[in-house]
Amino acid sequence: MTNRITPETTDAELVQRAKAGELDAFEMLTTRHEQRVYSLAMRMLRQEQDAEDVTQQTFLSALENLDGFRGEASFSTWLLRIASHAALKVIRKRKGLETVSLEAETEASEHSDSVPHPEFIADWRQSPEQLVQKREIQRLLDEALARLDEKHRLVFLLRDVEGLSIHETAEALDLSEANVKVRLLRARLQLREQLTQTLGDPATQLVRSHHHEH
Amino acid sequence: MKCEELLVMLNEYVDGTVDPAICDEFEKHLAGCNPCQVVVDNIRKTITLYKAGQPYELPIKFRERLHDALREKWKEKHPTPKDEK
């Protein structure tokens, strides 16, 4: 006797049922999370074909490896993990690089870079609620995101857009939490800088004194 | 607390995970430092804006292809005697 699958059926239950052979359960999981995975891929890759490939790869991979998924992380975190690695692979391929571990590549750069200093400081003219209504705002957001290094972009997308915790983000990307935090900080500051240049009111622009202290 | 020190702890403050004692220091600094106030405010708004952004819709044809591909793969993985299409 099986219950009908409803919107209330949890991911965990769907996973169990999919493992037991119910295709409908896996289809439901896909339907629930496909937009999220696709959005992540589009924001990372900015190209529809690549995003579609990554999305398809992600769900096929999840299907293939479902037996190995033990439910320690949530299913959606697991999907985002697969998608993240797939997206990074595409970017590396675009750059003509070999696949190296994220951690290894990071070591050199993270220690020497310091935290970016805010340069353009000004109040925004409008609230996020007002801004989000405007069509051109999405383009502005995407362009700012595209200018980030993909390592920083990915952490920002997982943590701030997808709402994963620092811990979950670290797990998804095989990074230390400290590393995630540094990348997140950089991403947030860089995005702030870029957005403020467009959205900040020049009339309220402030100049920071470098010897300012209390 | 100097502006530099605040900058390093910006994540924790914005996320509300900073140690209460340090939080006090933070607030004291912010109370008297307009640039830092604005930066913190900018960051909060930045995050809000991205969170509120529209997710990308899957192109309809792609969605169909995706689900077809999954069903195909599923059949390979779970062959049943009555599958005879």
Overview of this structure, please?
With 214 residues, chain A is mainly alpha-helical. Chain A has two domains: 1-99, RNA polymerase sigma factor, region 2, helix turn helix motif (Rna Polymerase Sigma Factor, Chain: A), CATH 1.10.1740; 105-202, Orthogonal Bundle (Arc Repressor Mutant, subunit A), CATH 1.10.10.10. Chain A is 65% helix and 0% strand. Chain A has helices at residues 11-19, 23-45, 48-64, 75-95, 102-112, 128-131, 135-146, 150-161, 166-173, 177-199. Chain B has 85 residues and is mainly α. Helix content of chain B is 72%, strand content 0%. Chain B is built from five helices and no strands. Chain B is elongated and about 75 Å long. The relative contact order of chain B is 0.09.
List the helices and strands and how they pair.
The complex is a heterodimer of chains A (214) and B (85).
Chain A lengths: L10 H9 L3 H23 L2 H17 L10 H21 L6 H11 L15 H4 L3 H12 L3 H12 L4 H8 L3 H23 L15
Helix pairs in contact in A: 1-2, 2-3, 2-4, 3-4, 4-8, 4-9, 7-10, 8-10, 9-10
Chain B lengths: L2 H6 L1 H6 L4 H13 L1 H18 L8 H18 L8
